[in-house]
Amino acid sequence: MQTASDRHEYPAHWEADVVLRDGGTARIRPITVDDADRLVSFYEQVSDESKYYRFFAPYPRLSAKDVHRFTHHDFVDRVGLAATVGGEFIATVRYDRIGADGTPASAPADEAEVAFLVQDAHQGRGVASALLEHIAAVARERGIRRFAAEVLPANTKMIKVFTDAGYTQKRHFEDGVVRLEFDLEPTDRSLAVQRAREQRAEGRSVRRLLAPGSVAVIGAGRAPGGVGRSVLDNIRDADYAGRLYAVNGAFPEDLKELDGVPAHRSVRDIDGPVDLAVVAVPADHVPQVVTECGEHGVQGLVVISAGYAESGPEGRERQRELVRHARTYGMRIIGPNAFGVINTSEQVRLNASLAPQMPRPGRIGLFAQSGAIGIALLSRLHRRGGGVTGVTGVSTFVSSGNRADVSGNDLIQYWYDDPDTDVVLMYLESIGNPRKFTRLARRTAAAKPLVVVQGAGSAPQGHAVRATRLPHATVSALLRQAGVIRVDTITELVDAGLLLARQPLPAGPRVAILGNSESLGLLTYDACLAEGLRPQRPLDLTTEASAADFHTALLHALEDDSCDAVVVTAIPAIGEASPGDAELAEALRSAAQAVPGKPVLVVHVELGGLAQALSAAASTAPQTGSSTPSGARLRPSQMLPPTTQTAPAASAPAESRLIPAYPAAERAVRALAEAVNYAQWRRDAAEPGRVPEYEDIDEKGAAEQIDGMLARGQGLTLGTEETHQLLGRYGIDVRRAVPAFTPQDAVRAADAIGYPVALKATAPHLRHRADLGGVRLDLADEEQLRRAYTELTELFGEPAELRPVVQAMAPRGVDTIVRAVIDPAAGAVVSFGLAGPASQLLGDMAHRLVPVTDREAASLVRSIRTAPLLFGWRGSTPVDTPALEELLLRVSRLVDDHPEVVAVTLEPVVVAPRGLSVLGASVRLAPPPARDDLGPRTLPVY
Predict the structure, then answer these.
(1) Beta strand 845-849 with 804-808: parallel, antiparallel or unpaired?
(2) Is 546 helix (H, G, I), strand (E, B) or coil?
(3) pLDDT tens digits for 92-104?
């Protein structure tokens, strides 16, 4: 918060770009004294009715006094914000702080009057709602806790803006005016409203890019070849459903068409709207193109041009200026350095990319930052699509390049309610905003599978985003908690995606295995065990099995209530009686169709036609080699190569069952295991658990203690007494450890505590290292204590170096670690593992985002690899895991209630058969990092 001495400084951090309800963007910024002419021009374009609603009387023009009042603010008690497009105002909002009597006031008065004015041409775009979010955030920053607004009853649109915002409010009618009063503290409802608006707006902004009614390719050359001309040819060859234009400033003035496409020297010359511009000109020409597109009303850009952040500091600044420039006109950008976008919908048929061939239409949404990875993914889907994929192809594809504006988060918002997409596949080189990504992923994964390959890259070039300090493995674990199906390679990405796009989710981990090869069945069995599935003994049909045998066996397995999924293994058979590929595929498909509730996968070995036939059996596409007699084998020479096959004209019937086929048992089983885990997550997400309330928690006392300690400095690690006191307010008791700088100190401490005791060296190099011999346990009397003290000092040095302490013995149990940390990008995270080498050497730690629910605490304890040690492994006594889960919940509550608690470590926590003992603890305080997810909607800052 600014002080009195700097209260008139311009608050640049209030500037923000926002996405409006229709998918366009606007710039929100403080109004200054330099905006007088803009304000007058804006007001002249507002209708008399809107002016009347604002001032409750005819008010045709602003006086000089009005202009001065509305442009001169102190940014504390009087604040004005404007929404701008193209540098001009489209809406304004202001607040004036008032006292209890309704007259102008200063702090500590915490109420303000607020008023809006939106240009008529921009009403209905959600501008006022976005301005309300931002002016409310400004007011909270300035110590204002409540807004009041007076609205004429006929001004129903503005009343709706206030009432729909989700704040706690009062409403009454007096003197012909509706007076609304509402608190500005975010509520669950206001956050839900804000996030629902965010989803609709960002989803529509992507829809404008993926389903344009008209496209201009800027930089298309007259001669074949070149980036711009290639994109133009690809759009035309895909039979784009909208209007297509070729634009190049080097075209002769008399050139009217380019291979049948209308040609123009500038986008300004196009007679009619242009929804999307694909920019493929040198980087130094792009600013002029952006200006022309903005002035013509283009809604979005796909920038293929390179020479931006990937080329160094100069290019990074060029990229930031590109985004700022485009947003000035309300345009969003895919790119720069993008590979392009594809939409296979019959109503669109857009291939605005460098891919020479349109992918098969299907139900998979595909996102890749890297153009090279995008090419690889499309190629793999296309190769397997000729057989395995069939009609299960791509709905939409985006390769975002440098990801300067539109990101994976935006695409998730779009795919969340896209009726043409059932499965989302994403290759992410980095996650710029993990907190938002996990929030969006959790919501999307509850509706449709989201499969992600996460690279180990850094933040996107040119982005001003907070970098996460969490390890790569931790971020991966948090993504899984959010329902993301995390895989490691693009092969696994495609394998899992094809299964999820074709088959129902399994009800559990029980797997039936059948086929004509005993050895392949056993390989599949072992793979299931390795992936944590519960396979039944394989059913060997022998190499003499006919298609009817496969059909009968699969039908029997699907009808068996003791299995949740079926893996069919098949190898080439020899002999006249062996089934042909098409015949076997139809047998499997018909059986799966008869009992449609369970997933079916096929592991095939060098069966050239089976994978193709499994999809073709249910496809409406023209069948390759359809004249082949039933039961005969299809040779590769009888099939069209994948690159020449025709995409189906229509989707397969809804009841069709396309069975995915895999060339290796491990790949099929890994994909199935991911589907099993995801299905379990879906079931758990339906009952997410709760965050328990504990009556013994002293939240107010903890807040007062934290405020008092932070007043001493910006960040500090608490002392022992302060740590014990703060944790005690949340019901977390830490066993006292009494310093013992002499043998006599140790004896006095033990007498006070009571024998038996433990003697520990707490020097940094010996702490939590029992393996080095710095701990002596079960010391029953003074003699044993003095002997242990002498041994420690002889081994490790003087007491001043050892820092020995005496502590009461805890009941025997399993040593564990509980940690919590607030990451600036991901948020608060609670971690758990066993103490010692298991967590330190093997990284066997589990993680959950705060707040942790009771169900999540239980899964956290059970998700580490060494969890069996807690539950009676090899005949040992099980420990008190409910007490451990309660401790995790209390730590979660502490860091959730008090974001100033930026780090907590409890080590070791000894979990006994009854109860647990916290033997060591540390707490660090600091001013909390800003919570982007609790503030108003904004696009990334440049």
Answers:
(1) unpaired
(2) coil
(3) 999 999 999 989 9
pLDDT per residue as tens digits for the range 430-461: 777 777 888 899 999 999 999 999 875 555 55
In which residue are the tokens 């989710």 written? 505
Helix (H, G, I), strand (E, B) or coil at 35: helix
Of the candidates 328, 197, 259, which has an alpha carbon nearest to the alpha carbon of residue 936?
Answer: 197
The burial class, CB within 10 Å (0-12 / 13-18 / 19+), for 716 is: middle
Identify the three-state secondary structure at position 906.
Answer: strand
The predicted pLDDT at position 455 comes to 72
Task: Determine the Cα–Cα distance for residues 3 and 626; give it in Å rounded to an integer.
Answer: 81
Instruction: Name the pTM for this structure.
Output: 0.83
Buried b (16+ CB within 10 A) or exposed e, 114-150: bbbbbbeebbebbbbbbbbbbbbbbbebbebebbbbe
Look at residues 875, 874, 872 and name the one whose alpha carbon lies nearest to residue 911: 872
Whole-number Cα distances in Å, 502 to 392, 424, 557: 7, 13, 19
Cα angle: 809, vertex 810, 814; to 5 degrees: 135
pLDDT digits 0-9 by tens, 130-179: 999 999 999 999 999 999 999 999 999 898 898 888 888 888 888 889 99
- Main-chain phi, psi angles of 102, to 5 degrees: 85, 5
Q: Produce one character per residue of 606-640: b if its CB has 16 or more CB atoms within 10 Å, e if not.
A: ebbbbbbbbbbbbbebeebbeebeebebbeeeebe
Q: What are the tokens at 206?
A: 């992507």
The answer to whether residues 134 and 81 touch, using CB atoms and an 8 Å cutoff, is: yes
Structure letter (DSSP) for residue 767: T
In the beta sheet, which residues pair with residue 16? 28
Nearest residue to 241 (alpha-carbon basis) of 344, 364, 340: 344
Cis peptide before 572 (omega within 30 of 0): no
Among 925, 929, 899, smallest CA distance to 716 is for 925
892 contacts 852 by C-beta, under 8 angstroms: yes
Strands, DSSP E only, in 175-317? Answer: 177-183, 214-218, 243-247, 257-258, 261-264, 276-279, 300-303
Is-contact 138 14, C-beta < 8 A? Answer: yes
Query: Amino acid identity, residue 264?
Result: H
Q: Which residue has the tokens 């059996």?
A: 617
pLDDT at 14 over 90: yes
